[in-house]
Design a protein that fits this description.
CATH topology of the domain at 68-176: Tetrahydropterin Synthase, Chain A
CATH superfamily of the domain at 68-176: Band 7 domain
Distance between the termini: 179 Å
Helix content: 40-55%
């Protein structure tokens, strides 16, 4: 083989390899493909594996046929009672009609842009017909079902199948939250003030009742003490009257009282003459 033939063979082989590589393609298990020829759809490839196409004439567009998630931008929704709520939500969808999908949105980014319009619009329409309190009640499941159904119908015209729409988080707008916080703070301060006033009033009632009971108890004790003192004085007078004629007993009795008073407290020391009349009743009568 001469040099020219060798070069021709190499070029032919290389061209054949290029043609072969451009004619073969792989469809993954998670993909679905569209084969176009001169801009016209030739067929839909929904079976995975190694496939063949006419090189340089046919081209393929592949889409992910799995269930996809898309976190939508945060939106603000106004309910029927004119109360606003900030909603963070997501949608789950898949490519249902790949050719319609190709013609209307082109790719996944285009699909997400459409969903970012469709889902919020459905949410605003549905929530705009109900009061905000329904979003915090068992009615919420019904509301989300209506939103999902509207989104499904709207997305069908783009070859998109919406499987689910869910709210991740729902909050009041910042200015509303601050107003509610301030109102709650004011209410709690008012309640605390009321509780303190009621506690002070109750404390005054308890003190007043205790002072009244104290006064009554002291008065009763004083009255009883005076009665007992009067009875004792009467008994003393009776005893004095009974024994006043007995001079020896009277002297003895007065001496006992004197001893009792003089010898208090118990460590008292008295220095007197043994012959003092003060000790008259301690022993034999002094001479």
């Amino acid at each position: 083989m001469n040099q020219k033939s060798l070069i021709t063979a190499i070029v032919s082989g290389f061209a054949g390899l290029v043609l072969l590589l451009n004619s073969l393609y792989i469809v993954e298990q998670t993909q679905i493909g569209l084969i176009f020829q001169f801009g016209e759809l030739v067929r839909v490839v929904d079976a995975p594996g190694l496939k063949f196409r006419v090189p340089f004439i046919q081209n393929i567009v592949l889409y992910d046929n799995r269930l996809l998630d898309y976190n939508l931008p945060v939106i603000e929704v106004t309910a029927e009672d004119q109360k606003r709520i900030v909603v963070d939500l997501y949608a789950r969808y898949k490519v249902k009609d790949p050719f319609l999908f190709y013609k209307t949105v082109g790719n996944i980014m285009g699909a997400q842009n459409r969903l970012a319009t469709i889902v919020p619009a459905s949410m605003r329409r549905v929530i705009g017909r109900v009061p905000l309190s329904n979003m915090l009640s068992p009615e919420r499941a019904k509301i989300m079902h209506e939103i999902r159904e509207e989104a499904i119908k709207s997305a069908e015209s783009f070859g998109i199948e919406v499987r689910d729409v869910r709210i991740i988080r729902a909050d009041l707008p910042k200015e509303n939250s601050e107003a509610i916080f301030n109102r709650m703070e004011s209410e709690r301060k008012q309640e605390a003030k009321q509780f303190r006033a009621e506690g002070h009033e109750k404390a005054l009632e308890i003190r007043s009742s205790a002072d009244k009971q104290k006064t009554i108890m002291l008065a009763e004790a004083e009255k009883k003490a005076q009665i007992l003192q009067g009875e004792a004085d009467a008994l003393t007078a009776e005893i004095f009257a009974k024994y006043s004629d007995n001079k020896d007993f009277f002297a003895f009795f007065r001496s006992m009282i004197a001893y009792q008073e003089a010898l208090q407290p118990s460590d008292t020391t008295i220095i007197l003459s043994p012959t003092s009349e003060f000790f008259e009743f301690f022993g034999s009568k002094p001479q």
